[in-house]
Sequence to fold (329 residues):
Amino acid sequence: MTPAPVVLTSGDPAGIGPEIAVKARAVLGAEVPFFWLGDPRHLPGATPWQEIAAPRQAASVPPGFLPVLPYAFATPAVPGQPDPANAAGVIEVIARAVALVQAGAASAVCTAPIHKKALKDGAGFAFPGHTEYLAHLAGVGRVVMMLACPELRVVPTTIHIPLSQVPAALTADLLEDTIRITHAALIGDFGIAQPRIAVAGLNPHAGEGGAMGWEDERMIRPLVARLAAEGMAIRGPLPADTMFHAAARAGYDVAVCAYHDQALIPIKTIDFAGGVNVTLGLPFVRTSPDHGTAYDIAGRGVADPSSLVAALRMAQDMAARRGRQAPGV
Fold:
């Protein structure tokens, strides 16, 4: 039986999402069966695309054409100029993609970039980002955001909150859930039988025995010790400033970090164009390119599709691993 294709959402039609979708199809051809869910009016001019009526038809579309499952937005799009009238369409496309994968019509969801402020201004979007909205759609209380490239995987424990709120938000309960969800996903979705986890400290030098803050000694270290006693291959808290050079990275499969920038700065430095955003803990596979809408270059034809190509490949690989583990498969 032919595996179900990956569904790629349109993202913000004023951003680079539509053009990198076309470029990704040109790079991947039939390697990763996927279809684009969005309004064909938002694709770059002269795009070779073919309408499909159902996801299963994507496999029969010639590699030189982008399979499109149409969804009509309110208005056409002007590159670089988000239109509040299209905000509801952006949100609905995400919801429809999730419904397709939940029904088994798609194997995974890959999401093109959205602009949270544009969605909030245009449609009252009440979520900090994609990750939280997908958790809501899935009915899951807690999920984890992972950024991955061939050289590094990172997980920020706290995500889209001000830095001033991080110490209070970084609780033992949240950190433990983050580690356990990450551990399970590395086994089930990435095929790593015994994941090695490195946990970054919150404070400089991981607190230096309390001289630079007590959170590391009083909360992180006892938690890590308890999980290690259970048999988990885990170390920490480790000073974040020495965790990301090549020799250090060779010692772990994922770095669990305290806050957003502690995780994202190293991976974007190492692989700015090819990183992938993965949501762990969902009942379906979701990946996304690790960049934004890039309004400043939208419509100019210069956007790099590398991150989207990597995200589509990773979505297919993760879905295949889940499929092999499904009962009776």
Summary: The chain has a mean pLDDT of 94. The chain is about 35% helix and 15% strand.
